[in-house]
Structures are given as structure tokens and as C-alpha cells.
Write a structure and sequence with these properties.
- The chain is of the alpha+beta class.
- Helices cover about 20% and strands about 40% of the residues.
- The chain has four helices and nine strands; from the N terminus they run αβαββββααββββ.
- Strands 1, 2, 5, 6, 7, 8 and 9 form a seven-stranded antiparallel sheet that branches. It has a two-stranded antiparallel ribbon with strand order 3-4.
- The two termini are about 35 Å apart.
Length: about 170
């Protein structure tokens, strides 16, 4: 029988992955922008989820069985970016959104607007532990930003990316 105590957990999980050790890497943002600036200013995100649907097969008077269905993704991913008076975050991300579809309904096309974006988890030693690739990502939404005279805060942009697929690997 497996021992299920704190000592066993400590021995099994010697160094948990920290939720604050990660980088978002956007190589060559559409419309310009600096990859390093966006990496430094991204303050929160999440690891994209995945699921597998199910197909229920009833059988006579039994509960039946279920078998795996299709793999599904949400196809959206959010990141929050700090903004400075230099406007480098929004100046990097808004042209990408505008390239998707302009005011006349024209798009530059998938090849011109989609980029692979990476979420990289980092160890406490500064080594990359996992790299998640969001395939075919583009800026889908820039959320409203509340402004108020009675608040002491900074401007943060919540950006929603759409993506085609997720690939993950341990480095």
C-alpha cells in the first residue's frame, strides 16, 4: 500500500512549479513592437485548457458505455499587460488587432496576421521547464480599461488572443 502522508508528498514533489515563474513570448508582433517589452509587461495569464468530449452509447436496459469523443479547446487565451506613458504595449498590440479586419471588413489573411505565441514556464533555477506553443494566434479583443480619479493604479490592458491549436513540451 502507498504511504499517503506529508513526508511522501515532500519526497515526491520536491520542487513545485511556481505560478509566478513564466514568460509570454510573442516573436515579431504584427505591426511592430518589441518582444522583450511585451514579455516584461505581461503580468498575468493562464495555461490553456484542453478537454475530450464523450460519446454516450446506451445499451438495452443498462447505463451503457461512454467512449472518447473529439479533443476540444477554448481557442481563446487572455493576457494582461501593464502600460507605460510610452504606450509600447498598446502600440504593439492594437495594430495586430486592426490587421485582422479593418473598418471596411477587409483582412490581410491568416498568413499575415497569425503568429505562434509561447508560454514558457521557468524553474526556481531560471531554467525553462515547459514551453507551450499557441499555434496560429492573433489578437481578437482588447478589453475596456476603467479609468477613475479616485483610484491609485496603473493602466492594464486585457488582451484576448484567438489560436488554432496548443502544443506543449517539456524542455
Amino acid at each position: 500500500m502507498t504511504e499517503m502522508g506529508v513526508t511522501s508528498l515532500k519526497g515526491n514533489l520536491t520542487n513545485p512549479q511556481r505560478t509566478f515563474l513564466w514568460d509570454v513570448i510573442i516573436p515579431e508582433p504584427i505591426g511592430g513592437g518589441d518582444t522583450e517589452t511585451l514579455m516584461l509587461r505581461c503580468t498575468s495569464t493562464n495555461i490553456p485548457g484542453e478537454a475530450v468530449g464523450q460519446i454516450a452509447i446506451p445499451y438495452k436496459q443498462t447505463a451503457g458505455v461512454v467512449i472518447p469523443g473529439k479533443r476540444t479547446l477554448s481557442h481563446t487565451w487572455q493576457c494582461v499587460f501593464l502600460e507605460g506613458e510610452d504606450e509600447k504595449s498598446i502600440d504593439s498590440l492594437r495594430p495586430w488587432l486592426m490587421a485582422s479586419v479593418d473598418n471596411d471588413g477587409k483582412s490581410l489573411g491568416d498568413d499575415a496576421i497569425k503568429r505562434d505565441v509561447y508560454l514558457q514556464l521557468v524553474s526556481t533555477k531560471g531554467e525553462n521547464t515547459r514551453k507551450i506553443k499557441l499555434v496560429g494566434a492573433y489578437v481578437q479583443d482588447i478589453a475596456e480599461v476603467p479609468l477613475s480619479y479616485d483610484a491609485e493604479d496603473v493602466v492594464r490592458y486585457t488582451i484576448t488572443f484567438a489560436y488554432d491549436d496548443v502544443e506543449g513540451s517539456t524542455t
